[in-house]
User: What shape does this take?
Amino acid sequence: AEATSYHLGVPSGEQRAYWPAGNLKYRGMWTAGVKHGPWNYWTSGNARESSENWSKGKLQGPFTKWFANGQVNVEGYYDQGLKDSTWTWYATTGARDMLGHFKADKQDGLWKYWYPNGQLSSTGLFRNGKQEGEWVYYYEGGQAWKKGSWKNGEKDGPWTTWFESGQKLQEGNYLNGKEEGMWNSWFENGKPKDKGGFKQGQM
Assistant: This one.
């Protein structure tokens, strides 16, 4: 069931919708035919589902989405209908899954990702929706796994990979997303394994 007010043929005022059981499905406001102000949604089980804010027909301000168990799933902010500022995603346990910054709906700024156990998985920068600069990746136990540079969304510059023990596994350079120059690899006991030159990803 749905209840909507109209003025001069367009939605105006509060709109409500209900689940078959009679409990509220969503509630929000219309102004001159466009959404304006807070809109809230609930599941058929009467749990909060999401909360958003609108300004003249565009998402504007805080946004929150919940899991069925009541834990927050996503928290963020909209500006003129586009994701902006800090956004955070959570697991059903309440632990953070990923966190980062948006600018005009594109990833821009520092981003962090976590394993389910709460250990940091990776962290680095985005610029205009593409990975940029140094990124660091970790094993689930917290040890360094990989470290390297990105440029315009492609691997570019020195990259190093380690065994979980901390011993260096592989090292070399990328250029425009492809291996370039001399690459070295080692066994976990530290003894050299392979050594070879690359040109545009070809050995």
Notes: Residues 9 and 39 are 21 Å apart (CA to CA).
